[in-house]
Amino acid sequence: SWEERLADAVTPLWRLSYEDQLRVKYEAQRTVLLRLSAQLAQGADPLSPLPWTSGQLGFPLLPILPSPVTDGYRNKSTFSVNRGPDGNPKTVGFYVGTGKARDIVCVRGDHLQNMPAKHKLVARCYEEFIRLSPLEPCLLFHEGGHWREITVRTNAAGSTMAIVYFHPQRLTQEEVCAHKAALTDYFARGPGKVCQLDSLYFQESSGTRCSHEDSPYQLLRGEPHIYEELLGLSFRISADAFFQVNTGGAEVLYRAVGERGFAEGAGTLLDVCCGTGALGLSLSRRARKVVGIEVVEQAVRDARHNAALNGVPNCRFLPGKAEEVLPGLVPSLGSEPDLLAVVNPSRAGLHYRVTRALRNCTALRRLVYVSCKPEGEAMRNFRDLCCPPDGQKKLTGHPFVPTSATPVDMFPHTAHCELLLVFESYSPLLPPLPSRMCVTESMRPHTHRPKNGEVATESTVEDVFDETYREKEGPKPPRKIVWRNVILMSLLHAGALYGLTLVSSASVLTLMWAVLCFLLSALGVTAGAHRLWSHRSYKAKLPLRIFLAFANSMAFQNDIYEWARDHRAHHKYSETDADPHNSGRGFFFAHIGWLLVRKHPDVIEKGSKLELTDLKADPVVMFQRKNYKMSVVLMCFVFPTVVPWYLWGESLWVGYFIPGILSAAHLWGNRPYDVHISPRENRFVTFSAIGEGFHNYHHTFPYDYATSEFGCKLNLTTCFIDFMCFVGLATDCKKVPQELVMARAQRTGDGSHRSG
């Protein structure tokens, strides 16, 4: 059918499951990188070969990062106008066929999986409008006609911008104005009102693609911009400004760029092809200064506005072509300490003058290249960055060495995939930069922790162990008891013990209620503070987040913000002085003692540096933090006591139970996935803590929503999350592929692994 032909052309992987799509893309990126390695080997100097020119993949290809949204993810779509399958020239959709074969047919895209419903609705209304219009469509410029494409832009909040392109041909301005008025009236008061457009733009042009400077976008109705939220920042989007078409995927990509390439406290960051500044602004917290370059002047104005809007003072953005601006800019940056760069060009790659300027900048130590088409012109950029010095090409600087590659799926159902490549400047005379491979599953096991006196750079992934952390020399600071907590915990546990003496006199309903309260409070910690907010291993809609916040208050284990912050520090600095509940200080300390003493100074220092913008951006988390004391009184004491008293006339002493997850699970058990880390598997703790005892697996793969290889087995929390997905309140559960689990267990486990 025409629909299937269009789906095959626009979304060629639509017949595959998403897991199979990721495998296809991963292998495609691996093929590209093997080809790059082979080309580097061919161009190597045989008398002085470089370490990465062996022809093999000499750097790690990390697991592909999936898109958090797979259907309807596009925030920008451009629909063409041409003859449809029925011959009607006023059909709005996408092309099937080629101009060379003269068999182009315009097919409606209502069935395309990557297109949101709002885009399809606007396209249908535009088709209806041009069919009512007396003007003909512009199929070929020399054949006449007027109505051309329509671009639809939306944001996560539902705001919609439409841009209609129009060829004036020989119409007078009065005639053009009349048709603009008809278009405005159709979408403002006519049938097109159903689209609820926030912005309607009109561009009249006789060129195929014209910028705002060449042919201004005319605002016919509504607001001049729409705004999008990304990684806790707000971005203004103009009619022709570049913004990643998959907002959720962009968050994954930008977070990966920061984690793979840039440590906090970095020097100057050069952002080439910066668009509206989204990537540079998202990295601004890690850098002393950010300098962005962008060819679209309106995008530069948007970037400057976005910096001011978000209160980011350390970013400046320069308009112009990168190949013209960069060669003059780089010499002035030569004295900058710790100069780093990120480039995110179009499919055409970087101009050779840009590559040359970056290559010859002696101060540039690390470069992150984000390519949407690495098999294309970007391959030439890679070769020029990595080849030996070449006087003929004026490549005189030290070559760059690729240190890691990460595929990021920004375009589900299509064959396209972003590739994030990290390069570091290579010279035998320069000390190597610390590795930024900041994921748990790397190409080789981590068997060494830096000792005192060794220099390393701190990891930037908040829930992955940081091998570069060094405990301070000298005596440990004295433990300072917090007597308030001691008294409170003593009273709570004494009350719980006294409650046990009342079990024989309690009714069955009361005992069942006590178990239910335990399960609810446990889920507030396990499914809420732990898996949702600490590790972001799945997404929860507002009703579920509110429920989990109340349940977390019932648990009385600190507010979500503080719990998640300390837990991320626990993963990042496990069994060190910076671990809030370091099991190396004994079972009692790890279980409850850490609550009774002042935090170690390293816990406070390292916790304050963690990236917590996702928590600050969640209104549920911040509301609970603001009202935590009152919510604890209501949910932990009043609510569990009043319900049995009011409903069936009985009193209940509420027991206080803190599962020994962070103590027993770090001291006793097997390590089937990674023998080099302390956390272990403990089935008893797993059962008592409703699924949180698969700790060796969890510290090896912290982003897995199940925290276990075995799904719902001994894992009530995973059952709960799966049920929430079934009813539509939870989405995007992250799961480690089984083959990756097996490979890791065989490579770094202690031999006790038994799958299933």
From TrEMBL:
Fatty acid desaturase domain spans which residues? Answer: 513-703
Q: Which residues cross the membrane?
A: 481-500, 506-529, 630-647, 653-670
Question: Where is it predominantly found?
Answer: membrane
List GO terms (cellular component aspect): membrane
> What's the protein's topology in the membrane?
Multi-pass membrane protein
Q: Where is the active site?
A: C372 (nucleophile)
Question: Quick one: which residues bind S-adenosyl-L-methionine?
Answer: Q244, E294, N344
EC? 2.1.1.35
Location of this chain's protein in the cell: Membrane
Query: Which InterPro entries has this protein been placed in?
Result: Acyl-CoA_DS, FA_desaturase_dom, FADS-1_CS, Methyltranfer_dom, SAM-dependent_MTases_sf, TRM2_met, TRM2B_chor, U5_MeTrfase_fam
The cofactor(s) it depends on are: Fe(2+)
User: Which Gene Ontology terms describe the biological processes this protein takes part in?
Assistant: fatty acid biosynthetic process; methylation; RNA processing
Q: Name one Pfam family in it.
A: Methyltransf_31
The Methyltransferase domain, residue ranges: 268-327
Q: Which UniProt keywords apply?
A: Fatty acid biosynthesis, Fatty acid metabolism, Iron, Lipid biosynthesis, Lipid metabolism, Membrane, Metal-binding, Methyltransferase, Oxidoreductase, S-adenosyl-L-methionine, Transferase, Transmembrane, Transmembrane helix
Q: Which family does it belong to?
A: Belongs to the fatty acid desaturase type 1 family. Belongs to the class I-like SAM-binding methyltransferase superfamily. RNA M5U methyltransferase family.
Give the domain note. Answer: The histidine box domains are involved in binding the catalytic metal ions.
Give the protein's recorded name. Answer: tRNA (uracil(54)-C(5))-methyltransferase
